[in-house]
Write a structure and sequence with these properties.
Helix content: 40-55%
Radius of gyration: 23 Å
Distance between the termini: 61 Å
CATH architecture of the largest domain: 2-Layer Sandwich
Number of helices: 15
Shape: globular
Number of domains: 2
Largest sheet: 6 strands, mixed
Strand content: 15-25%
Number of strands: 11
CATH superfamily of the largest domain: Metalloenzyme, LuxS/M16 peptidase-like
């Protein structure tokens, strides 16, 4: 059965519920998605992520190991994680164990492990991860590119945290974040599997009633820089790590997403079928792989991409990236490229809806981005019928893609 949009009422608020019943396997999945409670909500670098990690440490009474043992004994999985814009708590279990799983989630929400021991443990893990990232040149280049593209905004900050910010973090900071960002009134329920909608609503109402009402606000809108800056980061490396990005003036809920999807695929998302791979790897052998995507979110729309190359071919690769994008927006695509892309996107569609989690994820994204739940089907029809002239008008209208900034980890001479 197809996904549907429903709602429940908690106190003074109607809560949207994205739901799909699937009886193929005796498994149930439930997610609580809290809007505008992700990395972009950090008041301290790394706070949202550390708050999620704290919720993964079990309860104060049972402790991390004790709570995990309870879950493992019944094959229950409960986990929290964050993205840029959202904070997610998810639960999955066999249908027979789902009532038990709900009891454990309620236990966790009523008694999070707000102890010095739990805080010390997640700090230890996070600080170790950050130390490793000091030698991760992809991470360094990606972080620098964000700082260039989104200067002055939350997107430019080190939202995974810094050694300094994590060391200074207190339990009170995490408590405050959780109690002021996770509320019944900014939640979206996502439920699917071997369960009916009335059961799903009952469980969601039971859980969401435990949350407070929180202050809500819209996601901050950011425009990527068009200043075409280049930052060189000097490291002891034998390769150049090139990350690049530019503005893409395109709304997350635009009905012409199918055109952006085709353009993205051909520019840098198609592997060996993309312009970048063809020009930079196949013809010149400068890299094993080069990729670019057109990201469309509520907070920002932009192009981003990356490659690795020899230090000696760094400048050539950088210039080629600029050249490929310039040619793409000036001359557009060919009829053969369009036909090949159509065949791939239409032919591979079943692979994107094989699992319940894929279908629920798509349905949630459609709701979150203000689109109908059958949006993907509508877009497939438009992909099938779009003409070369329509695609090239779209591509040539986005000359801002050529305003590329670069962050390059290299070894200076």
């Amino acid at each position: 059965m197809a996904a549907s949009l429903n709602e429940i009422t908690i106190k003074d608020t109607k809560i949207p519920v994205v739901f799909e019943e699937s009886r193929h396997l005796p498994i149930v999945s439930l997610q609580l998605v809290f809007k505008n409670a992700g990395h972009l909500s950090n008041t301290i670098d790394g706070l949202a992520d550390m708050s999620a990690k704290l919720l993964n440490e079990g309860t104060a009474k049972a402790g991390s190991v004790g709570f995990a043992t309870k879950l493992d004994a019944h094959a229950v999985d409960i986990a929290a994680h964050v993205g840029r814009e959202s904070f997610v708590i998810e639960l999955s279990a066999l249908k027979s164990e789902f009532p038990y799983a709900i009891e454990r989630l309620i236990e966790l929400l009523k008694d999070p492990n707000y102890t010095p021991e739990a805080l010390a443990q997640i700090k230890y893990q996070k600080l170790g991860w950050l130390k490793q990232k000091e030698a991760d040149f992809d991470y360094i280049a990606a972080s620098k590119l964000r700082a260039i593209l989104f200067k002055g905004s939350a997107l430019a900050k080190p939202y995974d945290g810094t050694v300094k910010s994590i060391e200074a973090l207190k339990l009170e900071d995490i408590k405050h974040f959780i109690t002021t960002h996770l509320g019944y009134n900014n939640a979206i329920g996502v439920v699917g599997g071997d369960i009916d909608i009335e059961e799903a609503k009952k469980y969601l109402a039971q859980i969401l009633a435990l949350f407070p009402k929180v202050a809500t606000k819209e996601v901050e809108k950011v425009t990527a820089s068009d200043k075409k800056e280049t930052a060189l980061i000097d490291e002891d490396t034998k390769q150049a790590y090139i990350f690049f990005g530019s503005p893409f003036h395109f709304a997350y809920n635009d009905k012409e997403q199918y055109k952006a999807k085709i353009a993205e695929y051909l520019l840098g998302g198609a592997g060996f079928g993309s312009r970048m791979m063809e020009e930079i790897r196949v013809k010149r052998g400068l890299t094993y792989g080069v990729y670019a995507s057109l990201r469309r979110t509520k907070s920002v729309s932009y192009m981003s991409g990356y490659l690795q190359t020899k230090l000696s071919t760094q400048d050539e690769a950088k210039n080629l990236i600029q050249s490929v994008v310039d040619d793409f927006v000036k001359n557009g695509i060919t009829q053969k490229e369009l036909e090949d892309t159509k065949k791939f996107l239409l032919g591979s569609e079943p692979l994107r809806t094989e699992t319940l989690s894929q279908r629920l994820g798509r349905a949630y994204n459609d709701y979150y981005y203000d689109r109908p739940l059958d949006f993907a089907k509508q877009q497939l029809k438009k992909i099938e019928s779009v003409t070369l002239d329509e695609m090239n008008r779209f591509i040539k209208a986005h000359k801002e893609l050529s305003d590329i900034s670069f962050a390059i980890v290299t070894k200076r001479k």
